[in-house]
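Hi L., both proteins are below.
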Amino acid sequence: MVDFMTPIYGALNAVFNPILAMDPNPANPALTVLIIAFIVSLITTVANKYLVDQDKLNEQQAEMKEFNKRLRDAQKRGDGKEIAKLQAEQTELMQQQTAMMTDQFKPMFVTFVPIILIFFWMRASAVSDLVIILPKTVYWVILTPVWHMIGSFMYGGKATIPYGIGWLLWYFICTFGMSQILRKYLGFKQGF
């Protein structure tokens, strides 16, 4: 059986191994994960920017917010006629909401496979040995013990390094931060 991942890993090695080699601490490549998180965030943010009509999305969300406010007000007043009228209008809004959700999935169809391949590469490379030691406050604020408990339940074993996190949680922290910065820079009106 031919291993179809070998050429993919070869291509990803050609792209990411130079980044890994430039990391000041290749044995614990936190900077490499940060750079990869930036690249992935850039790809997904740009895909969202150009594949989703942000103005239409914001307009539909404002319309839905206004509709919900009118419905709550009518329910508080006990206005049966207004509630019936709004419920008739709700069907059309739900169709718009479904179309909006479909539009929001377009970037995922474009970015899903490359991101999964990058995850597989990270898990198979030296990045998988990464351990970041967090300050105690940050460790507790991001609920790291909960993630350790979930990981030990799913994969067995225990977290042995106090206040330490692995590459995946470090990647998620970096990606979240980078996405927020890129969304702001690219002019998104709403947050993550």
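That was the first. Here is the second:
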Amino acid sequence: MNQSEQHVQEAFRGSYWFSIIRLSLLFILLCGVVYPLVCTGIAQVLMPGQANGSLIKGSNGEIIGSELIGQNFTDRQFFQGRVSSIEYKAEASGSNNYGPSNPDLLKRTAETIEAWKTDNPFVPVSRLPIDLITNSASGLDPHITPESANVQIPRISKLTGLPASQLEKLVQEHTEGRDLGIFGEPRVNVLKLNIALRELIQK
């Protein structure tokens, strides 16, 4: 190989690496900066509530929570959500994925059932919906079935003094239907339901 051919090859290699670097920087800029900013901007214009976390605020503007993430309600006069093995911590989304014969799962389920018997003596275990004793896949599910809300009404009625008929109407008002009328199942957002319940209690 003569000297001129070497110069040509070196120039080609230099041009080749320059093209790679330039193209990489271009895609980093487009995919890492421009695209996220455009998507964020569109979301803020079209659906600002969802883009900012679907936050629920009180009358004073204080953030109470997100309608997408469940919460623990330790006060038995409020509706209870699903079991969460991660205590509804959003940074640790997931579940233990136990099999049906796992001793820890059986122990947790037995404890949940015993707690139900203690707190809900007027409702037999045979009426206990499965979603009240099982963990969702994410551990963050904010919803329960309407049946799971209704079976808690005797306890809440006794503790709050509110008529059962009023609580049944409250559950019905907060029952969300299937998405587009065909997807999913009817459900109740526990946080929204409890906010409305608190308003009734405070009247």
